[in-house]
Amino acid sequence: MRRIHNSTKLNRASAIAVAASLMMILVSANGSGAAAETKVPALIQAEPPIQTISQPVIQPLPSEDAEESTLADSLDDLVAIQPQPEELSHDLTCLAGAIYFESKGESLEGQLAVGRVIVTRSKSGRFPETYCGVVYQPSQFSFVRGKSMPTINRNSRHWKNAVAIAQIAHEGTWRSPVEGALFFHAAYVSPGWRLKRMARVDNHVFYR
Fold it and tell me: What's the rounded Cα separation, in Å, for the pair 37 and 31?
């Protein structure tokens, strides 16, 4: 009887040991499942990798064209560096034509003064909004015949100067000696205008 009892105890101990081993195996297996997932954040955002540039970063300098006007010491110099395009826009052609016919024999300052009056008129709200509209407005410029100008000698130095002055007047890259003027007349006439007289430049008297 004692041997059977001891054998029973041994069997129970063996069974308990086997059960314990099985439990340990089960716990180890569950470590890579749902239980493990509860210890890890649901969403991990990786930081972007730091990129390095092997080449030096160079800040671009302003273009030479943008600084042309500041490089000119005089209006003569600025006229000399103006481009001479083969074709002008319709509006710039009207502006250059008015400068040519009104003041081609005058100084560059006198030509610019005439050109800036046309530009200022187009922006004033009191005159047409285009250069051609200003130039061809009835009874404004004596050289205009209907809706046309006389023939221009486009190979002459006077025309080249007029084109250059038209670009300067349009871009506002040089200040007119009578900046802001809206009216002018030839110095040899006296129309008796009740306007603020600004100054005489060459053969024209300018008013605001």
Answer: 9
